Amino acid sequence: MTTLTSPPGGAAIRHPAPPTTTGRIGTPRQGGTILAVPALVWYAVFMIGPVIAIFVIAALHWPGMLQPVSFAGLGNVRTVLDDPVFWDAVRNTAVQLAVALPIMIVCAYMLGYYVAQKPPGHRVIRYLLFIPGLISTPAKAMVFYAALSPDGLANGALESVGLGSLTDAWLASPSTALACLIALDVWSGIGFTAVLFAARLDSVPDDLGEAAQLDGAGHWRTMWRIHFPVIRDYVGVVTMLQFLWTLFGSAQHVLLLTQGGPGSSSTTLSFLVYQKAFIAADLGYSQTVGVILFLAGLVGLLAIRRAFRQNY
Predict the structure, then answer these.
(1) How far apart are CA 243 and CA 102, in angstroms?
(2) Calculated CA dihedral for residues 172, 175, 176, 181, nearest 10 degrees
(3) How far is 87 from 268, CA to CA, in rounded Å?
(4) Name one Pfam family in it (predicted).
(5) Burial (CB count <10 Å: 0-12, 13-18, 19+), residue 223
(6) Residue 301, SS3 per DSSP
(7) Which of 48, 75, 79, 47 is nearest to 59 (CA)?
(8) Do strands 70-71 and 2-5 pair parallel, antiparallel, or not at all (unpaired)?
(9) Are 178 and 268 in contact (CB under 8 A)?
(10) Residues in contact with 92: Cβ distance below 8 Å, sequence separation at least 6, in sequence order
């Protein structure tokens, strides 16, 4: 719609009418909401639904998938807390996170910083760092089994340099089984994490590093005093991801290499969930541990977020 105005002594001028707020102005926003409905339904069914199911099953006495179900209330909680295997799993999981996570993040950041400086062959180094991520979990477990078995590469190397007294059945010894699993976690995660850090550090302006070096700062101070504060939020995100992968993903390594043994020396919380559900057929116990694992993950994420002062 247009309007006509007549200036003094002149011809009429046609002006377009201002847009109105009626009609189809609100259609795009409504259409965007409609398009989000399938994703919201998917999230509710396959993300929120399983979380609710964990809490429901944790309150049931369910001795197998085809067995009758009865209400247990807090009985499963008392059973779990009275089980010494559970406390061994808590201790092993705490040790695993306390050792693997700092080593992985610190070493990956330093390695990513080195790659971001674009040394000779840095493109090849990036590809090499991806190798552990390209190997399937069973293949990685077989590599470590071949290296750590009684007649494997580790013992053979020790004997070849005259340190035969240090040889051990690494995966079958209560004092070393958990350490071997931690080594596998670090080896499989450090390369991929370093590539993530290198990609983020590439976006940091070169002027920052050059100015620091002109002021007399070496690579060590530049790495930790200049670049680290710039990508601090990103370090927090990567730390959260590695925390979750280590906390919930350790069951596959335990299952393939040690089966939680000897005894319960390498049993972790995530493996205990699998063991009780699929081997012992005690679904109530399993999901009670799953609830504890879920709460531990939530508390860990909040602690990491607070440590890195993230604002989201």
Answers:
(1) 10
(2) 90
(3) 10
(4) BPD_transp_1
(5) buried
(6) helix
(7) 75
(8) unpaired
(9) no
(10) 178, 264, 265, 266, 267, 268
Residue 88: both structure tokens together: 């061994």
For 210-257, what is the HEC assignment?
A: HHHHHCCCCHHHHHHHHHHHHCHHHHHHHHHHHHHHHHHHHHHHHHHH
Phi–psi pair at 134, nearest 5 degrees: -90, -10
Q: Count CA atoms within 13 Å of residue 259 on its CB side.
A: 5
The residue to which tokens 């049931």 are assigned? 60
Give the Cα separation of 298 and 311 in Å (integer): 17
- Residue 245: per-residue pLDDT: 92
State both tokens at 240.
Answer: 């959260």
- Strand pairing partners for 4? 14
35's tokens: 């398009």
Residue ranges of the chain with per-residue pLDDT less than 50: 21-23, 25-26
> What pTM value is reported for the model?
0.83
